[in-house]
UniProtKB/TrEMBL annotation:
ATP binds at K14, H206, L207, G208, N209, G210, D281, L282, R283, G329, I330, G331, E332, N333. One of its GO terms (cellular component) is cytoplasm. It is an enzyme of class 2 (transferase). It comes from Arcobacter acticola. GO terms for biological process: acetate metabolic process; acetyl-CoA biosynthetic process. The gene is ackA1. One of its GO terms (molecular function) is acetate kinase activity. This is Acetate kinase.
């Protein structure tokens, strides 16, 4: 089976063509600057890349271009669109309505539209991608895979906010969590690496421009750091993470900002960028720290400290830990962040091996010392595979 995987954003879309049974990826790519001018970056499995500057007034033209590129010219990897068996869509917010991936139907789209207030930037683009694919590839099954679904196993005492209860019953205000496909994939890989499917206590640190931590007990999420929206939790590339409501109110008063302006600051001008004043890219900030920039040093130490706090909290929530996992661009590539996070966690059974930690590899690996009672894994995530595999199982009738 060939699955066309689509992740539609507000002005961009990522795609991949994959056989989920063999895990073979035929092509992957990105459309950027949709509605502005348009750039398609298409990549083959052998690393060969193709870049096309083509006008993309809307997402429809972008998806049309991607499908054409897959079957024609330099980007060709299949003979016909008919070779595509199904489409799997990344869907950001499923609220409480979707605890698993589902076949896209008019009712599903209608429900997702009702959830737009919870994800005003993401859900409209996700829905648009689904409707366009249904239009361009009539008869092809479409499956929605939700970022929030994996976290729907959290108990109520973990996901509720201590606000008046009617704010939950009337508006659905609670913690939902995100990066669910990554947390599911990595925790499942960790269970395999532990060779232990039962009684597993796993903490996953998905660290990138957006970051989150989850506590996974026996394959089920029991807590996660992101909340109603992705701005809660860890300090991220441009997101503030956990900030007291009083500090937000005080900043608004002192700066004379509206709520929209404040949210813009918290989502786009805070985090690593806001503290360092240099960049949202941790690589540049790490270099700045090495060059003696004290604000870069502060940003790096804050990032690591915030992660460590959540790790400690989740060891308590899980009543111990069998494996601590690092994934995402930062988690997989920054040995220094892993080192700082793990420093001092010996009492929790987490002992990092400096030599193993500093070795680079694109494969899953254990970087704990041989004597460590808990394992420390670096596991490359594969959210696209989760989307493709869920699509395959639902379309094939394997998932009821």
């Amino acid at each position: 089976m060939l699955v066309f995987i689509l992740n539609a954003g507000s002005s961009s879309l990522k795609y991949q063509l994959m056989n989920p049974v063999s895990k073979e990826v035929l092509a992957t790519g990105l459309c950027e600057r949709i509605g502005i001018d348009g750039v398609l970056k298409h990549e083959f499995t052998d690393g060969k890349k193709l870049t096309l500057d083509v006008s993309m007034p809307t997402h429809k033209e972008a998806i049309e271009l991607v499908l054409k590129t897959l079957v024609e010219g330099e980007g060709k990897v299949i003979n016909s669109i008919d070779n595509i068996d199904a489409v799997g869509h990344r869907a950001v917010h499923g609220g409480e309505e979707f605890a698993s991936s589902v076949m896209v139907t008019p009712k599903v789209i209608e429900t997702m539209k009702k959830l737009i207030p919870l994800a005003p930037l993401h859900n409209p683009a996700n829905i648009m991608g689904m409707e366009i694919c249904q239009d361009l590839m009539p008869g092809k099954p479409n499956v929605a895979v939700f970022d929030t679904a994996f976290h729907q196993t959290m108990p109520d005492y973990a996901y509720m906010y201590a606000l008046p209860y009617d704010q939950y019953t009337k508006h659905g205000i609670r913690k939902y969590g995100f990066h669910g496909t990554s947390h599911f994939f990595v925790s499942n890989e960790a269970r395999g690496m532990l060779d232990k499917k039962h009684n597993t206590r796993i903490i996953v640190c998905h660290l990138g421009n957006g970051s989150s931590v989850s506590a996974v007990l026996n394959g089920k999420c029991i807590d996660t750091s992101m909340g109603l929206t992705p701005v809660q939790g860890l300090m991220m590339g441009t997101r503030a993470g956990d900030v007291g409501a009083g500090a937000i109110s005080y900043m608004m008063t002192q700066e004379g900002m509206t709520i929209d302006q404040t949210l813009d600051v918290m989502n786009k001008k805070s985090g690593i960028l806001g503290i360092s004043g240099k960049s949202s890219d941790l690589r540049e900030v790490l270099q700045g720290m090495q060059d003696g920039d004290d604000r870069c040093r502060l940003a790096v130490e804050m990032v690591a400290y915030n992660i460590k706090k959540y790790v400690g909290a989740y060891v308590a929530a899980l009543d111990g830990v069998d494996a601590l996992c690092f994934t995402g661009g930062i988690g997989e590539n920054s040995s220094l962040i892993r080192e700082i996070v793990c420093a001092g966690l010996d009492g929790m059974g987490l002992n990092i091996d400096p030599t193993k930690n500093n070795k680079r590899s694109g494969k899953p690996r254990d970087i704990a010392t041989n004597s460590s009672t808990a394992r420390i894994f670096v596991i490359p995530t594969n959210e696209e595979y989760v989307i493709a595999n869920d699509t395959y199982k639902i379309v094939s009738g394997l998932e009821k």
